[in-house]
């Protein structure tokens, strides 16, 4: 994927993420609110269930609650802050440091043991989400 297409794609995902957070921030005070389409359809928590609530806890400075809700949310929240700044820096300075880092990350994910480890962590997170009744 070329640099401009990647930056546009990631920027679109981040903008959608911020839009989703704005929507969820308004709905978060309702106990029955769950934005998870998978859980709404099946009644079972997905591997990322609680990520929205976790990002909201992180934004409010409740890091313990964020971690206990879903550690993936902390990671996503950090990415939602760092990536726009990084991409904007690349655009302003006409560099492609994010593009190079993304390609390196992509090639690292193709290493079998790394992919297996990440899949295992995701499965363990899913089991934890189901066990804690998210």
Compact summary:
The chain has 134 residues and is mainly α. The chain is built from 7 helices and no strands.
Describe the structure.
By secondary structure, the chain is mainly α. The chain has one domain (3-131). 77% of the residues lie in helices and 0% in strands. It has 7 helices and no strands. It has helices spanning 3-27, 37-42, 51-59, 63-69, 71-93, 97-109, 112-131. It starts with a helix and ends with a helix. The mean pLDDT is 87.
Keywords:
134 residues; mainly alpha; 7 helices; globular
First and last CA, distance: 36 Å
Find the count of extended strands (DSSP E, 2+ residues): 0
Identify the overall geometry: globular
Major sheet size, sense and barrel closure: none
**What Rg do the Cα atoms give?**
17 Å
The H/E string reads HHHHHHH
- Return the average pLDDT rounded to an integer: 87
Structural class computed from helices and strand pairing: mainly alpha
Count of DSSP-assigned helices: 7
Question: What's the helical proportion of residues?
Answer: over 70%
pLDDT < 50 runs, ≥5 residues: none
Portion of residues in beta strands equals under 5%
Number of domains: 1
